[in-house]
Design goal:
mainly alpha, about 70% helix, two-stranded antiparallel sheet, about 120 residues, 2 domains, 3 helices
Length: about 120
């Protein structure tokens, strides 16, 4: 999580620096459209910085709350993870082995009139 936050933070800094460089590079250009575009870019940059700060605070608060909950109720967290793993495992198994064209012949249900698998091929009576 910290590595991702650092990458996002670095990307935001690079974007901010590029936007400021663009504003500085167009400072000597005249024209109403250029000045309006510079103003919009500066306003968008300020809004982006505010939004980034707000999202960062929320993310840090969420991580702290999750950490606190795990420390207060470790057995409930373990139980939840075991249950979630069981449900995910059941869904994967159901998805992979629900049809008769299963890639693993031994896993297919036997039909009436069939005998056991011999050399990976279904043998009928």
């Amino acid at each position: 999580m910290d590595k991702n936050m650092e990458e996002i933070s670095n990307d935001m800094r690079a974007l901010t620096e590029d936007a400021r460089a663009l504003i500085a590079a167009t400072a000597d250009m005249a024209g109403e459209k250029v000045s309006k575009a510079r103003e919009r870019l500066a306003a968008a940059l300020d809004n982006c910085k505010e939004l980034y700060g707000h999202l960062r605070e929320k993310a840090v608060d969420s991580v702290k709350a999750a950490d606190q909950t795990l420390h207060e109720r470790p057995y409930q967290a373990i139980g939840f993870m075991v249950g979630a793993g069981a449900v995910i495992g059941y869904l994967i198994a159901r998805c992979c082995f629900r049809n008769e064209d299963s890639p693993v012949p031994d896993q297919r249900p036997m039909k009436a009139g069939q005998r056991a698998v011999k050399d990976g091929v279904w043998n009928s009576k």
